[in-house]
TrEMBL record:
Entry keyword Transmembrane helix: no
GO biological process: L-amino acid transport
PROSITE patterns reported for this sequence: ABC_TRANSPORTER_1, ABC_TRANSPORTER_2
Protein name (database record): ABC transporter ATP-binding protein
SUPFAM superfamilies xref list: P-loop containing nucleoside triphosphate hydrolases
Domain ABC transporter: 2-231
Superkingdom of this protein's organism: Bacteria
Family affiliation: Belongs to the ABC transporter superfamily.
Length: 233
């Protein structure tokens, strides 16, 4: 569904990604782990089009989007939920979701929202509430729901568990897994919370200094020796 090869990008004169190869298939949840500053967010920003690739290639469902701007990548099926969520606090739940449907060209937006609500009963109950009054976990749910309103093929999630209480982390993990299993959604999950990674992932990649350095199985994360070896935690 999503493939990237030889991806390089950075900020001004600072190179961050040094040739990243990654592929996420339909219904697959691939997690990216790695230390602070490893380049995880930079990878997601480069895939979404928030940051231009200096070289390499990105394609979605067979379509080369490397040189396309972010809004065209969204239409091609890439949805990005940034670190820190980026929802509109002054808008209601319903209004936030309405913004999310803009990437879904030519579809019935009411219908899309109803389908997304099936996965998020709380958002349906509170559709008129201002998003800024939600708890952190609820805001994260809303950010994911809003991304889904664009009817993406691939969802890029940057640290959805950050600053969220354990019960909601678990709920998010279950939800991501269901979306992959039931909707065939491809998910690239950047996450440091190992419970979330283990509950949602099909497989995991370890990133260090702008490169993918290991491919591991979610079960490997239970093994402290392997953890130390792979993540130097
Ligand atoms: N806007 C920016 N301008 C300049 N340098 C940046 C910018 N954003 C990130 N960097 C640098 O790029 C490198 C990779 O940062 P990135 O945010 O991708 O790491 P990360 O793996 O997401 O880390 P974290 O786990 O802390 O979120 C770091 O050295 C960081 O300082
Ligand atoms: Mg980051």
């Amino acid at each position: 569904m999503l493939t990237a090869s030889g991806l390089r990008s950075g900020y001004g004169a600072l190179p961050v990604l040094h040739g990243v190869d990654i592929a996420v298939g339909e219904g697959e949840v691939v997690s990216v782990l790695g230390r602070n500053g490893a380049g995880k967010t930079t990878l997601l920003r480069t895939l979404s089009g928030a940051l231009a690739a200096q070289s390499g290639q990105i394609s979605v469902g067979g379509l080369d989007v490397t040189r396309r701007p972010a809004f065209q990548r969204a239409r091609a099926g890439i949805a990005y939920v940034p670190q820190g969520r980026g929802i509109f606090g002054m808008l209601t739940v319903e209004e936030n979701l309405e913004v999310g449907t803009r990437a879904a060209v030519g579809s019935d937006t009411t219908d899309i929202r109803q389908r997304v609500f099936q996965y998020f009963p709380i958002l349906k109950e509170r559709s008129g509430q201002r998003a800024g009054t939600f708890s952190g976990g609820q805001q994260q749910m809303l950010a994911i729901a809003r991304a889904l309103c664009g009817q993406p093929k691939i969802l890029l999630l940057d640290e959805p568990a950050e600053g969220i209480q354990p019960s909601i982390v678990h709920e998010i993990g279950t939800l991501v897994r269901r979306l992959a299993d039931e909707q065939g959604l491809a998910v690239l999950l950047v996450e440091q919370n190992l419970d979330l990674v283990m509950s949602a992932s099909s497989r995991c990649l370890v990133m260090d200094k702008g490169r993918i350095v290991h491919a591991i199985q979610p079960e490997d994360l239970k093994d402290e020796v392997l953890l130390k070896q792979f993540l130097a935690l």
